[in-house]
């Protein structure tokens, strides 16, 4: 199932190093409708420095980088979330730490 997570910079570093993390909260869209998916993503972004979209069997279980489909960051304070591939995790970490 698609789950949206709010992650901290420290959690991103752990993921980058190959560890798993268990975020405090996960958000699941009310339906597969694009607007519901966006609402869940935005909710996750309010609960972390980075929002991540992940495919998980257990929305409350541990997450590894291979579970994550994409990373999303509000880079300019506008509320619009920029999309990043998981291969760009080092750049995302740098963005949220600066």
Apparent shape: globular
Give the topology string: H per helix, E per strand: EHEHEEEH
Helical percentage? 25-40%
Low-pLDDT segments = none
Tally the helices: 3
Task: Tell me the Rg in angstroms.
Answer: 12 Å
> Which structural class fits the helix and strand makeup?
alpha+beta
Query: Termini separation (Å)?
Result: 32 Å
Q: What number of domains?
A: 1
Question: Beta-strand percentage?
Answer: 15-25%
How would you describe what is shown here?
By secondary structure, the chain is α+β, with helices and mostly antiparallel strands. The protein has one domain. Helices cover 31% and strands 23% of the residues. The protein has helices at residues 9-16, 34-46, 89-97; strands at residues 2-7, 26-27, 50-55, 68-73, 82-84. Helix 1 runs antiparallel to helix 3. The longest helix is centred in the middle third of the chain and has 13 residues, at 34-46. The protein is globular and about 35 Å long.
């Amino acid at each position: 199932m698609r789950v949206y997570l709010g992650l901290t910079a420290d959690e991103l570093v752990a993921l980058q190093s190959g560890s798993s993390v268990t975020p405090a909260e996960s958000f699941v869209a009310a339906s597969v409708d694009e607007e519901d998916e966006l609402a869940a993503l935005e909710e996750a972004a309010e609960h972390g420095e980075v929002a991540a979209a992940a495919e998980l069997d257990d929305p409350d279980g541990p997450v590894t980088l291979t579970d994550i489909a994409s990373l999303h960051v509000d880079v300019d304070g506008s509320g619009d979330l920029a999309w990043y591939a998981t291969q760009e995790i080092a750049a995302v970490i740098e963005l949220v730490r600066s």
